[in-house]
Amino acid sequence: MRNVRPIIALDFASKEQTLEFLSNFDESLFVKIGMELFYQEGPELVREVNKRGHDVFLDLKLHDIPNTVESAMRGIAKLEVAMVNVHAAGGLKMMKAAKRGLEGSKTQLIAVTQLTSTSEEQMQKEQLINATLEDSVVHYARLADEAGLDGVVCSVHEAEAIGDACGEEFLRVTPGIRPAQVSVDDQRRVATPAQARAQGSTHIVVGRAITKAADPKDSYRQIAAEWRGE
Ligand SMILES: O=c1ccn([C@@H]2O[C@H](COP(=O)(O)O)[C@@H](O)[C@H]2O)c(=O)[nH]1
After folding, report:
1. Domains of the chain
2. Which of 34, 62, 100, 170 places its Cα 20 to 30 Å from the Cα of 143?
3. pLDDT over 90 at 181, yes or no
């Protein structure tokens, strides 16, 4: 099911910057709190953002032995965030353990397949994976599905193939979103909001194109409209 609100990546260094950014908006947002902000401000900021009426995707990309991930997820469950993630490379047992840790909570659990900053050449050389990037991503998506997860993080370019493999209900959360005129930076597998819509993403994640825009609210509005097909 497509979520009409782009997820804004709150990649800020402090609580003050984050709350100042959020004060530009008067509606309820879907935001992502990742490592940069969480390691500075911790769970307290997650509670604060939640309290202000925003939905939170806690992007901590857990990747450890199953027992550690299960215990960490038990703690995360108490934060009542909308979504959290692990790395699919942690394996089937780890993903099942993560799901057990979230038992009793409404938090959706998704798995990172291949980071959108990874190219096929890099994956083959550095991870020694002898497959196409799409095959590797679809393989991880099937594994996440088998573990009972709600979906995956992937690029727009693999979203359709994942829908075919795991079903349309399976979430395809896609970062690497760049409006046509915005620079690609460190991302490799990028796409516009319109391409994401056409290729079956269920959620888009947008950071710098909004947070570093001269007018973040206007940029958010334009990206959201393109994503909704308006
Ligand atoms: O594969 C992945 C997984 C996570 N991310 C995160 O999404 C945002 C993207 O920010 P931009 O500024 O729009 O590039 C960022 O927080 C990443 O940590 C990703 O890009 N790719």
Report:
1. 7-228 (3.20.20.70)
2. 34
3. no
